[in-house]
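Support request, please re-run this one:
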Amino acid sequence: MTPTAIFQRKALPFVITALIGALGAAGCSGDKQAGGPPPQGPMPVTVIEMQPQKVPTSIEIMAQTEGARETEVRARVGGILVKRLYQEGDTVKAGQPLFQIDRAPYEIALAEAKAKAEQTAREAGRLKGLAEAKAIAQKDYDDAVSANAMAQAALRQAELNLSWTTVTAPVAGTTGRAVKSDGNLISTADSLLTSIYQTNPIWVRFSLGESDLAKFPNGRMTQKDIKGVELVMPNGQVYEKRGKLNFLATNIDTTLGTQQLRAEFDNAGGQLLPGQFVRVRILTGERDGVFLVPQSAVLQTEQGTLLMTAGPENKVAPRPVKAGEWYGKDWVILGGLNAGDKVIVDNLIKLRPGAPVAPKGANEAPAGMAGMAGSAPAKQ
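Re-run finished. Output below.
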């Protein structure tokens, strides 16, 4: 057998394997070309049909709550603090005992003052008869009367000092943290023990900047410009009770360029706490014939504010609009929409102008898919 024949005989299995692989690849390629990519249908989207509404015009500002009355509780006499008589953070009544200062020194001082007062009273009484009988000089009797008056005043002061060793709440409200602990030495120069906050009603402090003030006539707010005050909690919910403005500064803060305001809210349930950060919504009137659109549906572009709408043929139609302020979780649209327009609120990134869509309401199945929703897949 020639060398050429031997080579052909050894190479034959490799040739056959290569041919089989090539035929298999060609068959797979042919199958893919025959089937092709599946056709892409309309994009399912959620739409909201626009209807004109009446919404209040408002301004929202960051604010902070504070007690309507914040009263410092101070000791009137010095001494060792023996005991705290309340639980920090509790609600107390006016006159309720809060702290007890050591009474012993003041009890001794009261006993001395009482003995001194009794002595001077007896002396004045004894000299009175002698003065009437002209047995002593009138000056001696007058001095005795004065000494007795001073002793009686000292007795009254000693009684007050002893009563002040029990520190009571000057007003009703919620107590704060105790500044002094048991065993501390209290002095009249450092007499603060705690504070009491009156939380019903509760006050909310805030201020308006130049941009907000520019929305009012003459660049300043007056009482007649305010129709109501609402409170927006940190979780986004509106406080159930409306408040009222109880302070409006008549001047502009020259350092910050703001106008200071304060509102008052009923807090009988104790839902609001002093020092809490909230948002105040000042209602300044009403605006009729506007549309409310979810904030997620509004697109901010270089050309302006846009909304994506579903046209009569269920094709994407961008719509330039004029946006106003936020109202809750919605955006107020002042112009560019008509009643009955269908605004697309989801899948905005995937949309292109003129692309077909399958619109559905918030609680509806996409158009063209209602018959498929209840059908079960066929068994193989």
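The chain has five helices and 19 strands. Residues 1-36, 365-380 have pLDDT under 50 and may be disordered.
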